[in-house]
Amino acid sequence: MRMGCRRWIFNARGPRKETPARATMPPATFRCWQLACMRLQRSGSSASPSLSNCHRTRNARAVSQTWCAWQSQRSPPTPVFCSTNVLNRISLVRDASASGVDVALKAISLFTGVGGLDYGFEAAGFGTEVALDIDPVACHTLRLNRPWRVLEKPIKETTAEELLDESRLLPRQADVLIGGPPCQPFSKSGYWARGSASRMEDPRAETLQGYLDILEGTLPRVFLIENVPGLNYRGKNEGFEAIQRGIDAINERRGTSYRISVAALNAASYGVPQLRERVFIVGSREGAKFRFPRPTHRLPFRPDSDQGLEPCRTVWDAIGDLPSALNDAELGMRGKWADLLPTIPEGQNYLWHTDRGGGLPLFGWRRRYWSFLLKLSKSLPSWTIQAQPGPATGPFHWSNRKLSAVELGRIQTFPDGLTYDCRHADVQRLVGNAVPSALGELLAREISYQLLGCAKIVAPLSLIPMKRGDIPEPEPIAPLPAKYASMVGEHEDHPGTGKGYRATGWAAAAVTG
């Protein structure tokens, strides 16, 4: 029988566990239950979970699920599970951690950033024992929002012993090591900038070795690495090959059996309201094979082969309930093209103003980057949130402005209620570099079930936004400002993939060099 994270069901007398055996609750679980009772009291409810019907659990997640279901429906006649919009979508595990309660599943987090991946693991019942990041703004933001131990230093100056000491763990005691090493060398821009040269020669790629060094020193039961798809491009996958060689060396030196599973996942395929593709590598110390979950939501612009899946979540689902942020000066458009954005419809970019679009021909087809003057559509998922966008780099709100901090977090499926004490540009950078939390929650659930021996959670992901009602009509577009009239005319199209300036530039340099 699988031990650990068990489901809870409810009847008119209160919650009871699916298994008939009853036992005294351990102190950690009892404290979690107390927290649930306090939450009920604060909400003004006269109901309270019955302690006499409690059952032993090794994981605070089960208590969190109990709270969620009890809060959403008091005495349902049939089994129910976590609501998707309870307590501002913040897991009770956070409160348990803040109160000193021992969370059973323990994570060590590297390159934590603002914590997007960690919030997902938190929602699945993991506790971040220690978080490491070099960015002072990211570390400050983590400390504002969670009681985690945070180390603010480069990974190359950090030892596994230091992380274990901070997390109060011994080697092999951590359940999971998670992190996404900086991805600039493996991005599309890095691909074209370096040409045929190995991207492992980029100094920023040293963080991969830093991750492997910590992995060898901590020897967690499971590890997860997140990165851009370019880490594992066909014929250009030196980053993935370096990881594979490193894992083989660790297995040989330490007697482990880490086995790698790798997949490129699009977050929108799993209910995240954002088209964002990333590579995930998961390894089990015992050699168990990890099977990545199948898509649950159909992507837009796909053929009928995706029928049978849920409709994708849209930007309107994520932020449609938020008040307008038009009065925030930091969100206003700036730069040369600021007054051109209002002339572009929702869901379109600069291509609207080409000879193949519906506007006036101001640009050549595909002569600009895709996110140039890119505007969100209420009826579609967001395009990938950028970390360091230029003044004309989208996606922009349909109200012709930048996205607010709360809107950015919603699109990344962060839990509500996060605090930022920094400039909006820093918020954009932190959020744009993060992993969507709901995707982290999904992978954490699968890891706990497949590789850590916990019972499978059948509840919907707690961080996915609910589907909203009727989507409002698109915003009207503005007429073209007179200053652009001189640009109207014929423009040369882009010559094709691999024939643009960057591609031909490094090829010519390779020949002449």
Question: What labels describe this entry?
Answer:
7-stranded mixed beta sheet; two-stranded antiparallel ribbon; 11% strand; 11 strands; disordered N terminus; Rossmann fold; disordered C terminus; 513 residues; alpha/beta; globular
Largest pleated sheet: 7 strands, mixed
CATH topology of the domain at 102-312 and 434-450: Rossmann fold
Number of helices: 14
Mean pLDDT value: 81
Report on this structure.
It is an enzyme of class 2 (transferase). It catalyses: a 2'-deoxycytidine in DNA + S-adenosyl-L-methionine = a 5-methyl-2'-deoxycytidine in DNA + S-adenosyl-L-homocysteine + H(+). The protein has about 525 residues and is α/β, with parallel strands linked by helices. Among the domains are: about 10-90, no CATH class; about 100-310 and about 435-450, Rossmann fold. About 30% of the residues lie in helices and about 10% in strands. It has a 7-stranded mixed beta sheet, with helices on both faces. The chain has a two-stranded antiparallel sheet with strand order 1-2. The protein has a two-stranded parallel ribbon with strand order 10-11. A hairpin with a 2-residue loop joins strand 1 and strand 2. Helix 1 (about 25-40) runs parallel beside helix 2 (about 60-70), helix 1 (about 25-40) packs across helix 3 and helix 4 crosses helix 13 (about 435-450). The longest helix has 17 residues, at about 240-255.
